[in-house]
What does this fold into?
Amino acid sequence: MSKIAQKLDMKTQDLLRLNPDVTSEPKKNSFLVVPERKLNNFKNKLKKSSEIESDTISNNTIVDEKTKLLEELKEKFEVYEVKKGDTFYSFKKKFNLTRGELLLLNPELSKGLKVGQILKIREKQVEVVADEVFYDDYILNGNSLKVALLLPFRTSKYNIDTLTTKTIFTKNATLVNIATDFYLGAEIAIDSLRRRGLDVELNVFDTGSRRGNNLNSIISEKGLNSNNVVIGPLYSEEIQKVAANVNIPVVFPVYSNNQSNFHSSNIIKTSPEKSVFREELERYLKANFDEGNIIIVSDGKSQSLRTSNMLKSSLEFGTMANTVNILTPKDGYIAKSKFLDIIKPNTKNWVVIATDNNIIVGNAINSLISLPEETTVKVFTYDKGKVYSKIDNRKLAKIGFTYVSDEFVDEESLSSRTFTKQYLKKNNALPSFYATKGFDITYDILVRLASGNDLNTTFKQGASIRVETKFDYRNNNRENQGLFIVQYNKDLSLSKLK
It folds into this structure.
């Protein structure tokens, strides 16, 4: 099936999905369901190949096989022709590639270097966004919006006559800074939309202390239903209370472990559920892993084992992996020898870490960066928690650490540079994480409403990427499932793979 898929220029799992009754090798003279366009392309390719062959024979032309091979390789790889004096050490200095990494791409090097050999240096990075439709921002001429922003500034706690601004932001730094930064980012979003001709009325409310009376007063006295949308509050119990008392969209701007329990149909969750992170990594692995070994690292606890077994079953069916193994700790850690028993030299080895246990993660990373030279690995996780902030980035870069994230900042992009410039000019400071979130969420929600359509309609029309956040509600009109696949590069930079 994999050979047939290759001829048709399609993924094996897609061909298997169209022919679920074919579980192993297809039987001779049997029929397969294939996309018509793929079949026609294959027929055309055969026809052209036949014409070229006929023309070649009739003209008695000798095909330069080396040139042909070179051109084919250049389509997918950066290549290099071995010259006299080249050594594996010189390749390490020139390309920052170990002997093992070169062997993985060029197995013939196990017999040594030969002058004139054409070597694959690395795969060309081609960013392909598949099956994604992006929302086209549109502002209906003459449209106007009212937005209510509910944040816990807790101003009643501060007497301006006795407290300096510095004292306010130091004494209660975390919450005050989150609320204030989010507001400042939202303000830049509204300024940007006003410059584009949208009339926006911003109504800001202080929800005060958690479980205080401010929110009840806002709900009963401030006429929230007169707005087109409510953004906030920040607490899960408060967002549910607001949603139950209004009939307009209520946007939850942060992540909460409790958000899966939200029942109101008007709550918009801007942060993806944690289960979506794992599903996104599964999709990426299935689409990009062709052959080799997959190793899943678990901490042995019931939750991690359950997730690991689900992942194993899914990858065994959805990829061409030789083996999919789960490693669990003994005496609190996983011995390096257990990795060496499974990981093979000159073969693609992908390791998925399915735990956030500090000791197991740190131990696994240290084992994987010190494998024999001919053995290379690439490490993935769907939950890049605080544990990875304690690991030297150089170690993560060495193993091509790749993870699922709900944020990615391309500092060179136009949207990023424009936002940073506007924020710096207005606030004399660079934007924080929450300031950027405030901008992204506010801009995305308001520019969709500015089209004159309701949010559900615009959600179906496509995903969007703002400064650092991706919004994709197409599979669920209430829950954002927009995520990135991010990779550490050897120069410690980050690349967005998807």
In short: The mean pLDDT is 86. Residues 182 and 294 are 41 Å apart (CA to CA). The longest helix spans residues 36-58.
